[in-house]
Design goal:
The protein has about 280 residues and is mainly α. The chain has helices spanning about 30-35, 80-95, 105-115, 150-160, 165-170, 185-200, 210-220, 225-240, 250-265, and strands at about 65-70, 70. About 40% of the residues lie in helices and about 0% in strands. Strands 1-2 form a two-stranded antiparallel ribbon. Mean pLDDT is about 80; it is low at about 1-75. This is ELMO domain-containing protein. It holds the Pfam family ELMO_CED12.
Amino acid sequence: MEAAAAPPPAPAPAAERDPEHHHGCLAVRTSLPRCALGASSLAGSSDEASCGSPRWIGRGLSCVCIKRKGAYERICMNLTPVQEERLQRLKHRMKVYFDPSRRDHQEALKALWRATYPDQELQGLISEQWKDMGWQGRDPSTDFRGAGFISLENLLFFAKTFSASFQRLLKKQCGNRATWEYPFAVAGVNITFMIMQMLDLQSTKPRTFVRAIFIQMLSEDEWAFDLLYCVAFVVMDKQWLDKNASYMDFNEVLKSTRTQLERELMLDDVMRIEDMPSYSLLC
């Protein structure tokens, strides 16, 4: 992996920018209690915005709230060099399809097996063994179509970084489990796809506050996406247990997981993925 770039110089204070200049920076960081924020809008009917003191001025984002009829009118952000570099790198990762003929993709799949079952020898890239991990069939490459190679990278990152949590979810060790459980590996691919949609990183211009907040986190840690993935997985499993869910409830659980992630990312004191309350679920 490429080394992280040096931090960029601090941006000019927000007071030196013209909030009416539509090509300038109007990125937002607000407090949930004061602004009553949902995923991308304000609750209430007042036209005045009251967002408290900005916490991220001088750290890559300035705080400007523009509100009309209970909803934010405009979001736009000028990226720092570090943010731009890491965002482009992440976008590139998101565009790579899993190619079973590529040697590096084959090796990544084998690495996932070793990290998951260190004491079991893999019989082949096409094998009945893969079903034990929660793939739909003998060939896991057919399950990557929705999210691409990055979903394999996410699973591998989870397995190596938080091995105890990974194994706990894989083996369904906690709580009263449903008779018809979610397939672990396929659930992981769906979680990657859900996060990509939630962050809206492929759009040309930022359209959500969650995206703007995440890009700031990306400038702090280039592995922010992978860390968010791990948090999302444990949140999904907790939601699954809390709802006494079964296989047919998976999409509903995934929706509630996204809502929980958005809510936590919008909290005023969450500056890094590690600050999210649900990060404590990882071990």
